[in-house]
């Protein structure tokens, strides 16, 4: 209730300062409609550049729903760990927002040391690390070759951004699965057997 009241007051104050409600279209509306297709580290710009205009509304809604569809299931599963929930939602926001920046990525990555107790349960760290290093090196190179030198095209740069966002997805899913495995070990012990044979819980 207090959040709703505070948000309403901020909206009214913003409207008074801006002299009207046009600021909504220039802020929230701009993010939701994604009219600017300038290349960035996100996924929107390439798809909507290549897309037929009469499909734009459908795919825009499909892309934007990713910012909301994970909230409810993650909130139910991580109801006892709200800080991890917030970090996971920040990570998904950094991947699926229309105009992401490196600051969005750095924000949730700066929180990862809070869960260093989950590191032993993570299984994708080497792959994710290699992907981050490779894309961090290749991203500026491909952008420069495409925009400034004209010796490459959008596909090269988008391939790098796609790999970069895939690495983020691997990272957050590995972290969440590590949380689930740790909870399982805390309740059932670390020794696992299937039909009397030692087994290991892995992500498929």
Automatic annotation (TrEMBL):
It is found in: Endoplasmic reticulum membrane. Keywords: Endoplasmic reticulum, GPI-anchor biosynthesis, Membrane, Transmembrane, Transmembrane helix. It is a multi-pass membrane protein. Pfam families: PIG-U. The chain crosses the membrane at residues 55-76, 82-100, 121-143, 155-177. The keyword Membrane applies. InterPro entries: PIG-U (IPR009600). Pathway: Glycolipid biosynthesis; glycosylphosphatidylinositol-anchor biosynthesis. GO terms for cellular component: GPI-anchor transamidase complex. GO terms for biological process: attachment of GPI anchor to protein; GPI anchor biosynthetic process. PANTHER family: GPI TRANSAMIDASE COMPONENT PIG-U, PHOSPHATIDYLINOSITOL GLYCAN ANCHOR BIOSYNTHESIS CLASS U PROTEIN. Belongs to the PIGU family. This is Phosphatidylinositol glycan anchor biosynthesis class U protein. It comes from Cherax quadricarinatus.
